[in-house]
Amino acid sequence: MAREGSDVNFAPERALVLAPHTDDGEFGCGGVMARLVEAGSQVRYVAFSIATRSLPEGFAPDTLAGEVREAMAELGIPPENLTVHDFDVRTFPEHRQEILELLIELWNDWEPDVVFQPSLHDIHQDHQTVAAEGLRAFKRTTILGYEIPWNNFDFAYQAYFALDKRHVERKVAALAKYESQQHRRYANPEYVWNLARTHGINVNREYAEVFQVYRVIA
Question: Which residue from 42, 51, 73, 167 could staple onto 163, CB 3.0 to 4.6 Å apart?
Answer without folding.
Answer: 167
